[in-house]
Amino acid sequence: MISAREKAIRYIMIVLWLVLAVVSLLISGWLVVEPGAISSEAISAFGGILLAGVGITIIVFNLGDNYQPPISHFLISILLLLLGGVVFLFFPDQGVALPNLEGDITAKLANLLLFLLVGFAGIWAGLLFFRENPAQNRELAVKYFTWLSVLIPLGVLVFFVSYTIIEGSSVINWQFISSSTNLMMGKVGIFPAIMGTFSLIIGATVLAVPLGVGAAVFLTEYAKRTWIRQAVGVTADCLWSTPSIVFGLFGYVFLVPRITGHSTLLAGQIILAAMLLPLTIATSTEALSSVPDEFRSGSLALGASRWWTIRKVILPSSVPSIITGILLGIGRIAGETAPIMLIAVASNTSAPSFLTSSFPYFQLGSLFREVDALPYRMYSIYKAGVGGSIDEAWGTALVLIVLVLMFYGLGITVRSYYRRRRGW
To answer: How far is CA 247 from CA 134, 265, 271, in A?
Structure first.
């Protein structure tokens, strides 16, 4: 039975490490915004406090008779905290040398990473004293790390998006979005790049999705031999893992000379469709395979044809998963720069237009012209200094993120609609 005194000591240890962890995480966030905000003296002082906390924890561990935290978790967390305390106290301005490489990791980055590590290890150490049963504390620690595996990627995503909003929102206005760039007049606009990116994404999706879904239907519903499915699966995986610059080089050597001899929107759409196709095939095949066989058997037993079953039963049931795969592919091709730089884009081009005021009210001329695109615009501004300043580059990045989120929002809406319709 644990006495009231030992319970009080455990609660003190929990509060001690949670407070130190929160302080460490706050300092790391401060260093992200202002790398030089924390002085060496303050870092050394925090290292001393950290070592004192480690010492107190070791004493409590040795004096505790009725309660002992999980030994492996305890030792690892204490060693991590001890490492952080020693570095903070004695080497607050010391970088990390990289052998056989030029340069090193600066002290600012090393301290930032170490503060994050201390924050996570401090929470870990505090959780080890949370319950009286060490087995329950071990389970709590495991849950903590599973939560970290979710929160860390989510935090990185939120940080990237937030930082882009902060840096790019200063140049976002109607003129910047709705006009084109005129360097002679000192006017910067990205409307042609927005329309070019729309055209590339929509064209690639229109070309790739029917082919990908059709191939998946054949593989799951008609192909009887497993070697066909394995061959197509391996081919799709190889295509998906192929570097994008290889697709661009193929388009430059094979497509461009056979279309017009120069960069065109159509060549860019075809290459991006080739990049989107393997993921569409893979995800659609998995989605169709996940539909229960009872659905097929029940429909066929009622006298429906195989094609009617596929069209009315199988495809509607797998649409949510298919759309998820398509969204992942769109997220990749929307930000591609290397392939379209070789075959589709050029600076200071007009926005593609497919509608006319005269019959037949539609034209295909824009497919055979160069276009501008948001990823290429960012590249040209940042690397060549053409088309604006670094602020305009951040504004272009923000618009690209919003554009991708719009496609995601549309896909999520369609996916939710079909999920409600299928009812399972």
So the answer is: 55, 15, 6
Cα separation of 254 and 267, whole Å? 10
If one counts every other C-beta atom within 10 angstroms of the C-beta of residue 305, the result is: 10
Q: Are 299 and 308 in contact (CB under 8 A)?
A: yes
Q: Which amino acid type is present at position 277?
A: L
The one-letter code for the residue type at 155 is G
What distance in Å separates the CA atoms of residue 45 and residue 299, rounded to the nearest whole number? 73
Residue type, 55: G
For 190, phi and psi rounded to 5 degrees?
-125, 20
Residue pLDDT, tens place only, 373-405: 888 888 887 776 665 677 888 888 888 888 888
Distance CA 273, CA 270 (A): 5
Global pTM reads 0.75
Q: What is the C-alpha to C-alpha distance for residues 120 and 331, in angstroms, rounded to an integer?
A: 31
Is residue 204 a contact partner of residue 267, using CB atoms and an 8 Å limit? no
Given CATH 3.55.40.20, say whether it is the number of domain 188-422. Answer: no
Q: Residue 57 is encoded by which pair of tokens?
A: 């924890």
Rounded Cα distance, 401 and 161, in Å: 8
Calculated CA dihedral for residues 196, 199, 203, 205, nearest 10 degrees = 100
Q: DSSP labels for 139-159?
A: HHHHHHHHHHHHHHHHHHHHH
Are 285 and 233 in contact by the 8 Å Cβ rule? The answer is: yes
Half-sphere exposure of 303 (CA within 13 A, CB side): 0
- DSSP 8-state secondary structure symbol assigned to residue 359: T
Residue 423 has pLDDT above 70, yes or no: no
